[in-house]
Amino acid sequence: QTLTPDDATAIASINNVAAVAPQVTGRDQVVYKGTNTNVSVIGTTSGYPSVRNMQVDSGVFITDTDVANSNRVAVIGPTVQQTLWNPGGNATATPDEAIGQTIRIKGTDFTVVGVTVAKGGSGFNNQDNMIYVPLTAAQHFLLGSAGYVTEIDVQAATQGAMAQVQSDVTNLLLERHNISDPTAADFTVLNQSDIVSAASSVTGTFTTLLAAIAGISLLVGGIG
Questions:
Q1: Alpha-carbon span 39 to 61, nearest angstrom
Q2: What is the pLDDT of residue 40?
Q3: How far apart are the first and last CA of the chain?
Q4: CA-to-CA distance for 136 and 22, rounded, in angstroms?
Q5: What pLDDT band is residue 59 in, cutting at 50, 70 and 90?
Q6: Which of 19, 21, 123 is nearest to 62 (CA)?
Q7: What pLDDT shows up at residue 96?
Q8: How far, in Å, are 63, 79, 134 from residue 95 at the CA level?
Q9: What pLDDT sits at residue 212?
Q10: DSSP string of the chain?
Q11: How many CB atoms are located within 10 Å of the residue 22 CB?
């Protein structure tokens, strides 16, 4: 718990920063008319769709007013809607059906104001299987992390400005956190290239591991 909403506000003033979206993340039980599911819940701000290249299929996304007033509103992914509105899987629920309805997240009522456009994905990072609520509402009602954020997503104005923005963000946070030694930073700054490289490395490791397991199995089979 070292990053704060004020850090995000300061980052927004950096040259070539197009959008900033601080967020807190957790997993909670969500209920609608007796049907429940366990999904990732993200508390964020109005800049999130721009930073994450997300669109709303029906309704609206979280607004600055929602964040300022800790409004208990929610934007849900299409997978969440199908799970809650169509538990039998025999029909397809339309996004409009969810708008204005009440869901309960961790025992607290939230009004659905939007449904996002399907992007696809799987596992814990499936954006279609997430719920988005105002940052302050998540901090106050769901996660108990008032004053802190899990991460701050930043969109550079251009691809060419990425290195400059990353460097400026790092220097700004070091200054704000009163850290003189960069190796002692209480935060990590990654860009998309770093994330893709890390993902490729993990994929390569798993591929090598699976190949080794298959080789061992063949060797054992040969000995047998």
A1: 18
A2: 92
A3: 55
A4: 11
A5: very high
A6: 21
A7: 85
A8: 19, 11, 20
A9: 61
A10: --B-HHHHHHHTTSTTEEEEEEEEEEEEEEEETTEEEEEEEEEE-TTHHHHTT--EEEE----HHHHHHT--EEEE-HHHHHHHH-TT-SS---GGGGTT-EEEETTEEEEEEEEEPP----GGG-GGGEEEEEHHHIIIIII--TT-BSEEEEEESSGGGHHHHHHHHHHHHHHHTT---GGG-SS----HHHHHHHHHHHHHHHHHHHHHHHHHHHHHHHH-
A11: 27
Name the one residue in this structure whose structure tokens are 């992007």.
119
Q: Which residues of 155-185 are buried (b: 16+ CB within 10 A; e: fewer)?
A: bbeeeebbebbbebbeeebbeeeeeeeeeee
Q: What amino acid is encoded at 35 in this protein?
A: T
- The pTM is what? 0.81
Q: What is the percent of the chain with per-residue pLDDT over 70, rounded to a whole number? A: 80
